[in-house]
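pinned: reference chain
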Amino acid sequence: MSIDHIPGTDISLTVPYAAQGPGPTVDTLSNVEGKDVVEISGAETYDTSGQLNMTTVAVRTNMSLSQAIGRWLTTNDTIVPLETVIPTGTSSEEMQQANEQAFVQSEAAATVTAMDYLDIPVHVVVAGVMEESAAVDVVKPQDVVLAVDGQDVAEPAEVQEIIRAKSPGDAVTLTLENDGKKREETVTLGEHPEDSKIPLLGVTMTSAPRDGMNVTYNLQDVGGPSAGMMFSLAVIDKLTEEDITGGHFVAGTGTIAEDGTVGPIGGIEHKIDAAEEAGAELFLAPAANCEAATSRDAGDMVIASVNNLDDAVQAMDDFAHGKEVNTCAP
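pinned: its structure tokens
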């Protein structure tokens, strides 16, 4: 989710509301500031001719009463209680950190799902270590996690499942590899900051292909998990000789799970507005968001209903070949 704080407003005079509206759309097949949004090295990639635009929601906070009323009267923004955007007791900085973490997890899931679709094996790589965790002195970024307590793992979700079955204070043994050297490290699980009953390893993880391929997502100032499906599709398109877009302008949104399931997101009405204004021909919408997605006038843009990654690829193929697309019912 794209966050836009309005500058120059005295917080003591602001209202406890936020405005949600259309945010930027970004072509995941393009480049930003000289870098590919989705950068792949160590494997043959193919030129693409279409667009796969992720969509965002712009959120404005710290508004004065007159600013909030102005946006309500003159735009299609949705005015919502501030706590729906920033939960009570959570600072803007904490919310930003949570969004950034969700974005990292979304990138990992996007890589796993794309590799699974293409039958390319992956392994778990440490992306970062929390400074105050017990893991900080023994686990390093770029370590490959081979096993947890002797159980082989290939995806971050498998590590998380093993950890969730334990309790804070339990010790776990990690089998790690770095530069071809294996080692074992024991880590005492901490407490999750939001629930002291939930164990915390203190390590953020991503996925990388085992055959030396590397996938990097070069997109700044965007948080949250809603770009997951579009990232996964971009990876697939770049590694597939045939354009999966059929050369068309496709936009969309949706979380992605490591099993390929596409999940619902918030603010899809504004994402539909942004995509239609940008000129998208086809919009890939999570099936669970269909009712909200069709509440807006999308013009000639077709809104496809998507439950999983296979549905998304099929919708693009049907659209490209002039076949009937499984659309969201109005």
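why pinned: The two ends are 26 Å apart (CA to CA). The CA atoms of residues 319 and 325 lie 6 Å apart.
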